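User: Can you predict the 3D structure for this chain?
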Amino acid sequence: MERKVLSERYEIGDLLGRGGMAVVHAGHDIRLGRQVAIKMLRADLARDPSFHARFRREAQSAAGLNHPSIVAVYDTGEDVLPGIGGADERIPFIIMEHVEGRTLREILHDEERNAQARRATGRTDQARSDRRTVANDPSASTGLIAEADMGVGQDHDPDRKPEPLPVDEAVTVTAGVLSALEYSHRAGIVHRDIKPANVMLTGSDEVKVMDFGIARAMADASATMTQTQAVIGTAQYLSPEQARGEPVDARSDLYSTGCLLFELLTGRPPFIGDSPVSVAYQHVREIPQPPSTFNPHVGADLDRVVLHALAKDREDRYPDARAFRTDLLAALEGRPVRAPVPVADTTVAMPVAAAAAAGVAPVPVDATQVLAARTADPVQTVTIGHLEEDDEPRQSRAAGYVLLALAVLAVFGFAAWLVTQVLADEEGSAQATTVSVPDLTGTTVTEAKSLLDQADLGYEEDPAQNSATVPADSILSQSPPVGTPVDRGSVVTVVLSLGVGEVEVPDLTGLTQAEARARLTEAGLTVGDLTSVDDPEVEKDRVISSAPPARTRVARDAEVALVVSTGLVTLPDLTGTSLPQARVELLALGLSPAPELEETDAVPVDTVLSQEPGAGSVPQGSAVVLTVAAAPPPPPPSTTTTTTTTTTSKPPPTTTEPTGTTPPPTTPPPTTPPPTTPPPTTPPPTTEPPTTPPPTTEPPTTPPPTTEPTSEPPTTDPTTTEPPTTEPTIEPPPP
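Assistant: Here is the predicted structure, written as structure tokens:
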């Protein structure tokens, strides 16, 4: 194939198998990254609408089954692929669970396993040599029926005959198959093609049943029975009602399961023949031999269970899979079973051991006993081994002629029966007239049935589907299409609409855009608008929320808008806030505060002066540098300032005294002698001791209080009018 990917999602791998209607490839789901199995309709059948319909029914039936013993169906669809002659065709496909394991057919025909089983049992039974004897006898050669992979068309070599499974393993596997059938029958689905090729064992010995819903179309091409162009199953595992073309039900699956159990216990199916027709004839007419005939390890109770499942009349079989499974496990555990004791049938061939004891060359146990057993006297068959040696060749040839004549009569009789059936069908079809299928799309069920009754056609429903265009309970589609000429009495299959239908919006929080898109597609929804917003908690490109929100029920195919994280955080302006408050806001946003101190007395301590980066969007987890106000250190003590303060307090008293003593400048002469000792020092102490005791300590620390002359100018300031008179009066005393 030129195209290797289906629906831009499923990559086609190696071919795993091929059937009557489909091929199966290994595949890879690109979107979910898992291994799958891809089943596709064969290209040569792509233009046949009936096969399209059957393939679609399988998808609809199997998709509704969820059981550990049933291979799961994940998805279905159609894609354009190259068909026969290179022309593009729409090919339907089914995406299924990829199971690692082997089918029961592969296990039964595993030569290595069979060789080990033969060595373990050391089998040297007389039956093998007896079969060789009969096979080498020309007179008995007509009684041999070949058995191959499908039971027909190849020579049967006893040395390569599949070995049976151990009894407990065969019962356990069959019980798993019945568990799957019990579930599917409750869902109203009949498998129709239970056989070893459709049952797998995984590496952990789990049973997986495959191909639900289209067994009629998936039978092996070399061993299928057809009637009116409808595949009805594999010949070796066909129920009598399927062989007769009658409707099937759950008990038909139980018959096929009985055939499967028979083969697991004996290594061969209950009936074998050289053509599918001969095998189907035996299913309808012949009574199977007990499994213990071929495997002495099979007990009488297990014989009863198998033969009860293989009853010709479905009314005589187990009513359901649960009853079959219960009886089967009871036989394995040695508990009483409900299956009746089979009535002895005189037409069944003599077992090998009994024939050997009687000195008779027995008829092969894997050969058919169809009409020979019914028409020949069993006593005559037994007495062949007691004839005189001189008469043995003649008697052998006579027996061979008799068997040959009986076989020819059987073939002609069966052919005559088939011709009668065909002529009857042709006569009925000649009397019938063809009609065109009416258009049922958009009509109600009542209207559709009325239209079909007028055309003398039948009505059948497939599982309903959702539709955005066709109202609920109206016909969505039909098969055959409108205007197709069909015989009167044919059935028209319709699909009802469920309307738009509602689905639940899945929880998409935290998913990437690709994961969210895949989740919505699986839920039957589509992706709507995408909005990117800053969020401190959700990683970049992951979904924050959806609209409608999760677990809301909406119409199928509705759009769901997604809000996705940008990976950024909106940083506010923190200038002017306190450092503790800024730290709390940054940590809540997932950012890292990085404070730096700056001394200032312009604002309160711990006030944010600036930030880097500034307000706006920043990457998640970023560091934010905060410049914070810190108190400046206290100023060091200054002596100049202290002295100045002291001198400013002294001048007032000194200035007041001169103003009072200025009128009597004559009195100072008598007091001039004292001032000679401390003229400047004496007057200040007399006034300052009561007011400023500290100044007495300061003069020693600052001997240059000679700055008092600087205090003198204030004294002269108030008497600015008399500086010349004051200067002369003060100066004379010093000389």
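The first helix runs from residue 49 to 63. The chain has 26 helices and 26 strands.
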